[in-house]
Structures are given as structure tokens and as C-alpha cells.
Amino acid sequence: MEKLPKIAVPTIIIAIVLIVLLAKSAVTIGSGQAGVLFKTFGEGVVVDEPAMGEGFHIVAPWNKVFIYEVRQQEILEKMNVLSSNGLDIKLEASVWFQPDFQNLGKLHQEKSEMYKERVLLPAIRSAARSVVGRYTPEQLYSSKRDAIQQEIFEETKKIVESQYIQLNEVLVRDVTLPSTIKDAIERKLKQEQESLEYEFRLVTAQKEAEKVIIEAQGKAESNRILSASLTDKILQDKGIDATMKLAESPNSKVVVIGSGDSGLPIILGNQ
Predict the structure, then answer these.
(1) Predicted TM-score of the model (pTM)
(2) Is residue 118 a contact partner of residue 111, using CB atoms and an 8 Å limit?
(3) Where does the pLDDT of residue 185 fall: very low under 50, low under 70, confident under 90, or very high at 90 and above?
């Protein structure tokens, strides 16, 4: 076997070293991700430059790149909180968030990759306890769900917006009360509903009775006016008009044989 030329050995070694360095220097950042550069022999975390975007990057092999998910993410958190009267309430909420892309370096430097555990979750727990503590179990169970959800979102946002975290939404998925309290609230709500239905039936019946009375009064007034306006002379005139129409009808055979007490003719038909 022939020996390699002396000049070829260093070249091969250099090529291998270059390949290793290139492999260590190549960084690929995936879709929906961003990178934070850490300069080992420099100022450390780069905070005064934008985060590294998606795609292929070459960095010095002695530097590091910390990759973050910058798309919207979700955390499902289950908490035990107290109502305004001290009852234990179980609350389940979804938190939609994402890191602030423009300040990703500062987020990494100050909070690290564990920013969710160190900042976001404590913030949502604190806000939930503060908000729920203002309401009674009945309000939590029924009428105030949307208001509570909005208040938790606003209070959490105040805490995290200065911590380089973008809060998009807080959704209260479930509120679980002690079974005895829940049953009592449901009975009360049922009784209130039945009471409202009874009141509605009473009001409906009263309106119907008023309608009948008004119709009867209108009919009585109409009859009174009609009776007052019908004099003997008017009745005679109407009788004469009716007699003339019957006499002129081609389908009727009319015989006038005398007059009645009112002076009107007595009409006999063909029957």
C-alpha cells in the first residue's frame, strides 16, 4: 500500500476540522421559531439586535443560539381560589400567549427559557385569586362568568406586558363549586324561574281580562249611541227603502195587502 504524500495528511486534517466547525456553526431555525444569540467571548446575550428569524444561519462555533417558539401558545391552568365569602372554588382557564419577538433577547437574559413557569403562571394565578375573591359563588356560577374572564385577562396583562410576554386571551373554561353550594344555587335559580313564569301568567291573564272589559264597554257604548240615533222616522224610512228593494226584485213576488202599526206595508212573499 502506497503511503499518502506528506502534504496530503495536513490537508485532510484541516478539511475534517473545517467540516466539524461548519457543522457546529450551522443553525437552522424552524417555522414559528426565533433564535437568541449568545456570544461566549463577547457581551453574552445579544439584546440590542433583532432575534434570528427562520431559516439557515452561520454562527461562530463557540457561540450558542437559544431557540424559542414565537407562535401563539396555550397553557391550561387549574387553580383553587376563594370566593368573596371564603368558599373554595376550582377554576380552569386557558391562557393564550406568545413571547415578545422584538424583546426576545431581553426575555432570555432576564427570565430564561422558563419564562412561563417564572412569570406567566404566577401572574395568572395571582390575577385569578384577586378577581374571584370579589364575587360570590352564585355570581361565579351564573351571571358574572364573562366579566370575571375579562378582569382576569386585564389584571394578568398588566403584570406580564412589562415582562416581554404578549398576552392574547384568557378563557375561563370551567368553574367548579362545592356540591352543596351548587345544589343550593340551582334550587334557588329554579324557584326564581318558576316565580317569573307565574308572574308572567298573572300579567297575561290580567291583560286578557282588561281586553275583554274594554271590548264589552266599546260594544255597549256603540249600542247606546245606535239606540239613541234610531228615531221612529228613521226606522220608517229604512223600512220603506227595504220594501222598495224587495218590490223591485225580479226574483220575488210581492203583494201589498195593507199596512202595519208603524204605517209600513205588510209584505207577503211567494211562500
Answers:
(1) 0.60
(2) yes
(3) low
